[in-house]
Structures are given as structure tokens and as C-alpha cells.
Amino acid sequence: xxxxxxxxxxxxxxxxxxxxxxxxxxxxxxxxxxxxxxxxxxxxxxxxxxxxxxxxxxxxxxxxxxxxxxxxxxxxxxxxxxxxxxxxxxxxxxxxxxxxxxxxxxxxxxxxxxxxxxxxxxxxxxxxxxxxxxxxxxxxxxxxxxxxxxxxxxxxxxxxxxxxxxxxxxxxxxxxxxxxxxxxxxxxxxxxxxxxxxxxxxxxxxxxxxxxxxxxxxxxxxxxxxxxxxxxxxxxxxxxxxxxxxxxxxxxxxxxxxxxxxxxxxxxxxxxxxxxxxxxxxxxxxxxxxxxxxxxxxxxxxxxxxxxxxxxxxxxxxxxxxxxxxxxxxxxxxxxxxxxxxxxxxxxxxxxxxxxxxxxxxxxxxxxxxxxxxxxxxxxxxxxxxxxxxxxxxxxxxxxxxxxxxxxxxxxxxxxxxxxxxxxxxxxxxxxxxxxxxxxxxxxxxxxxxxxxxxxxxxxxxxxxxxxxxxxxxxxxxxxxxxxxxxxxxxxxxxxxxxxxxxxxxx
Length: 507
Fold this sequence. Notes:
The chain has about 500 residues and is α+β, with helices and mostly antiparallel strands. It has helices spanning about 15-25, 80-85, 105-110, 135-145, 195-210, 240-245, 265-280, and strands at about 5-10, 40-45, 55-60, 65-70, 95-100, 150-155, 160, 170, 175-180, 185, 190-195, 220, 250-255, 285, 295-305, 310-315, 320, 325-335, 340-345, 355, 360-370, 370-380, 395-400, 405-410, 415, 420-430, 435-440, 460, 480-485, 490-500. The longest helix has 18 residues, at about 265-280.
């Protein structure tokens, strides 16, 4: 099968015009840089700018160890799997390695369907070269061959139970189970017998101890895929069965229940299971990060008629001439992956970095996976109408908490643990001269020699550097960050200090 040339990146490459625009709005610090404490990270892009575009992330630990492959989104209507996998892309490891494929079937994720070209997880035995999924399957097989373990993440129906309890809870259901194709198998590759049932049971026990709702507990689900009387003969075409039979590595399907309506809760359960398997495989995280803020587009950068790129914020209107060509160069959001831009009626499901002619008034829809997170209406200009309907205002305050960036909107509260280190990175505003604007964290002095009320760029240790009498109500619980122009407050943000113990990641 002919392979497309891969694009390998160890750092995100931003086009020169994007960097220029980012500098103009003081957002250079938002460029994603691989985590400094990781031994090594790589980002590979295969089949770029096609509907089969596949992103693969490799994280190498500081100490050598086994390699775990995590696949999410092989079925596009199972967000618990692909959202959970996405959380491990920027994890740093003390020991061992990860290969993470968050969105194996991105085009199906965008449409929120199981598979546009049929079920991708039923094509690992035989797939036609003319099948649109063939190249992805080929690449996933290659990644399986490089790994020591496989976790394939899913959302399943109902709740698995070894005995029939109800239509929703019985042996034919998948949800809240850890699936393997057999109880045990002997691997000539590793010259040892792997007890998959024992592994899954240890993981289940570890996870269930932290789940209060017994109805959500995980159970080992042995599909006995090779047996003549199996209930799941179709699984002989799956990724896990291929991994066990062709590459002799332990492989599991992790199924959270679609009956659990909250995607956040399903993602939390997925991460609990993944973390427990990492413990089982002696893959040790250095800095796990589990957070699921609602997706939000901040702005997009577009070029009209090959002119200098424009910054257009979420909800602003872009005015052009009828017949103008538009190229959406970049979208800035609070997520870096799974972002698409669709010019309605002019392009396809993803029009990022494509030049398209606009013949009628329309709208640019920004999505994170299949969730709309922003839009920019496009209208035709009349007379001397300005290009972008921008109004002077503060847009965002960029902060970093323990080096994890956040973009806050005016009046938003950010909660930190007392002892966290916060840095005010920058201010995003329109029609304001930034050198005249002060960003002041009340209760903190950045410049100890001359307190000018400007606190951008200083590390703020929230347990040692704050003066309690400047906090709201004087109790040291909430501190305002005040944005002022000519001594007049034009926006405020708030930092809430928590003294509660932080929850362990994935719990």
C-alpha cells in the first residue's frame, strides 16, 4: 500500500505570519512548547491535510521502561475514550514510554458517528486498499508492533455484569468493564505467560476502591474471542485481538458506560483505569495533568486576498468583498488538539489553512472535536466599513499556574491550591496601548525596589508572597487582579486560594 509522507515534529511549527500577528497581540507565550521536564517528546502527523489526518504523540520517560499504546476515538461517537486519551499527550514520565493516538477516527468524531466508512475496529484482519480507513489501520498496526501493551478506549452500552440482572445490566453489555480476548496466553515474544484476567482484576479492584457508586464499578469481561461459543466473534477483527494474536502483547478494551450521561465522569473513570494500568505496567508518571474545561475559541487569524493576516475574536464579524478569497491560518482556543474551522457552504468539514473563495455571506464555525466552541460571521462590506467589527476592550488575561497556562475572561475566577506558583503572562486587549495599561495583583509586590503596580512576569508564590489585608473580605481566600488605564479600572479577574488537599489525578 502506498504511504503518504509523514510530517514529524518535536515542536509545534507556527507559520511566520502567525508569529507576527501573535506578537502584535502579545500572545507569543501561548505557543505550545513540549514539557521541559520530559525526557523527550515527539509529535508525528500522518496523511496531513486529508480527512484521514492522524496525530501520534510519543512520550519517553527519564528512565527506560515498557511502552504503552493508548488509542482513543477509533469509534467516533465515544467521547469518553478520545477525550481521556487527549489528556495524556502532554504528560511527562519518570519511567517508561507512551504512544498516544487520541483521535484514530477524527472524521467520524467530527460527525459524532461510529464510523463514516464502517466500523474501524472491525478492520484489523483484512481491509481493502481502496477502503478510506486502510492507511490509518496500517499505521495503527505499525504502532502496535512497537508497543508492549495496548489500551483501546471506548464508551460502551449499558453495564457489563457476569449474570443477567436487567436489560441494561447483563453479560452482553459492555459499559464499565475491562475487556480482554482471553483469560491468559503464552507469548513467545516475551517467553512468558500473561494473565490478562489477573491484570484486569487488580486494576478493577484498585479503581473500584475509589468509586463510591457501586453501580459504576468496573468488572473484568473475558470475551473468549477465539472460542467457538463466544458471544463476540466479531472481535476477532478488532485491534486488541490483533495485538494479542499477531504481536503477543497484553491488550485491553476499556469501556465506560454511555448510560453515565456526564462525559466528564466517563473521562474521569477512563483516566482512573489508565492510571491503574500504568501502575500495573510500571510506567511512572512525573506530572499527570487531568483537566476538562469547556472548549472555547479565543480568536482566529485569517488572511483575505493574500493581505496581511487579521485577528478576529469569537463572535466578531468579518467584513469582506464579495468573491474575496479567505485563508484561515490559525485558531487559538483553550485546547490545542481536535480544533477545526468550517466555512459554511464554501469548504468541507475542516477548512483550516485552505484558500476558499466566498460568494455569499456565511459563517465560520469553530469546533473542538464535534462540539461548537466559537463562530465568526462573514458579511460583505458596504462603503468604508471596517474589516472587523472590533470594540475596545480587555479580552483575556493569560496566567500560568505551576506552568500550566490558562486564559481568563474578565470577572472570571481561577482556583489555585495555596502554595501554587502563579505568573501573570500577559493581557490580550483591543484598541488599547499596552504600555499604558497596568496589571496589578492586589496584595503582591513584583518590583520590590519600586512598586509601580505592574505585576506581569513575576512568579507569585501563593503561600508566601501575598498580603492578607488586600484580599477580599480580608480572609486570604480571594485576591483581585485589577486592570487599569490612567488609574481607572477597566477589568478585573480573581484568584481564589484553596486550602483543601488537592485530589490525586484521575481520582
